[in-house]
Amino acid sequence: MAHVLALVLSRGNGPAPLLYSDHQNSVDLIHDILAQVSRDSRLRNMNGRSYYRWILRLAQERPTVMAYTRGHSAELTVPAQMNREADYYASGAQRHIELVPVAPTPTFSMDEYTLYTAADGWIESNTRTFVDFFMSQHTASNMAFGYRMRMLTGIYDTLPPPDYPYSRALSAHSAVVQLYARSGQLPTAEALASRGKLPSSLCRLGCNAVESMQHIFVDCTHFSQWRIDTASELVARTAVRLNEAGLSDEEQGSVLLAAKSLFSDNAVTWPLRMSQYFLFPSFGFIEVLVPK
Ligand SMILES: [Zn+2]
């Protein structure tokens, strides 16, 4: 940007301006390109190419001499002293950033098609990484919101699910059950009926409801007593751990509430208003309900 500014300010009649810079790369590049050495191919993949194109356009309009001067030098030559002065004002400007005018973005010298997002601005380089990132994000959000939000675990915990339920499973059965639950492949009546393996998707334990994972693990009355007993055991064990950690009653409240409401559709514990404890392998409850 400093090059652009210098070239704009030096416009007019008179001798060709002499422009010093301590940025060796840009001085070399501009030299080469002004000498017409493989101009387009040099710039095609370069970071900040729109700025270089802008500089070159200005430098071609008016012959300019670019010269390199070493940065942070104690020499007493005029270029070294001018460089020190420029550095001094540049670092001073950091303390008054609000007074520094915003540099325009050279959209006029960008590639014909350039990626843009409101959050990131113009993306001139590493477009492959950029596109990859947005495609994975898009796929992840599709997966999260489809499949009955089974993959939307990020709202509870942004860490990837631990792999120990698989790598340290007590049996192959428990690892498979976990894998089937997360991929929606447990043989519920709903899944089997949708594949023509059962005539009805209603609960095989007699409820007037579709036998989905949600139904079996959270709603099915057949397992109500198990949920009540396990929740109270969980609350008791959690209370012991919290007491050992020396937490006050107040601090214990929210953790105990979470333990108590783990198996029910409590809006505080479960922001989606539906309990998904069976998707969290670390709980290890799921095996109890799935017949071997
Ligand atoms: Zn049922």
TrEMBL record:
Quote the protein name from its UniProt record. Answer: Uncharacterized protein
Q: From which organism does this entry originate?
A: Favolaschia claudopus
